[in-house]
Design goal:
The structure is a single chain. Strands 1, 2, 3, 4, 5, 6 and 7 form a seven-stranded antiparallel β-sheet that branches. The protein contains four helices and seven strands; from the N terminus they run αβββββαβαβα. With 144 residues, the chain is α+β, with helices and mostly antiparallel strands. The two termini are 20 Å apart. The mean pLDDT is 85. The chain has one domain (7-133): Ribbon (Umud Fragment, subunit A). This is Nickel-type superoxide dismutase maturation protease. Residues 21-82 form the Peptidase S24/S26A/S26B/S26C domain.
Length: 144
């Protein structure tokens, strides 16, 4: 499951927007290991949004998932990679107070070895993108 750097926690206390770094495969293909995120802390969350939250059983661990549905016990969150796990199918609904913010933007840093002109052009065209809400995220929920 994607963890976020500890720098994220310090930044959140000072500004409504802050950086985060993804580790892990649970949000592939939307987010890749090593992606940098721009997170708006305290933002209103709607179904389909990609969110940063505290893990319900290990609250010093911050994770990023897609908010699928608001239920009685909190947000039902899922990773975009159905094979990775580590989401509400494992730990149930996440209380609303553990959902910290909404992801607005992702930046994919240049990898070592990306030096050819074609590789640099491809990177430049895809490195920075907004993270859109997927209103059809509930399709995966219905399929379970």
């Amino acid at each position: 499951m994607p963890e976020l750097s500890q720098e994220t926690e310090r930044t959140r206390a000072l500004l409504p927007f802050g950086p985060a770094e993804v580790t892990g495969p649970s949000m592939v293909p939307t987010l890749q290991h090593g992606d940098r995120l721009l997170v708006q802390y305290g933002a209103r969350v709607r179904p389909g949004d990609v969110v940063v939250l505290r893990h319900p059983f290990q609250q010093d661990l911050l994770v990023v998932k897609r908010a699928v549905e608001l239920r009685e016990g909190g947000w039902w969150v899922l990773g975009d990679n159905p094979y990775a796990g580590g989401d509400s199918t494992d730990y149930g609904a996440v209380p609303e107070e553990l959902v910290l913010g909404k992801v607005w933007f992702r930046y994919r840093p240049l990898r070592n070895g990306q030096r050819s002109p074609l590789a640099l052009v491809r990177w430049a065209l895809s490195a920075a993108r907004p993270v859109f809400s997927d209103r059809s995220a509930s399709k995966r929920l219905r399929a379970r």
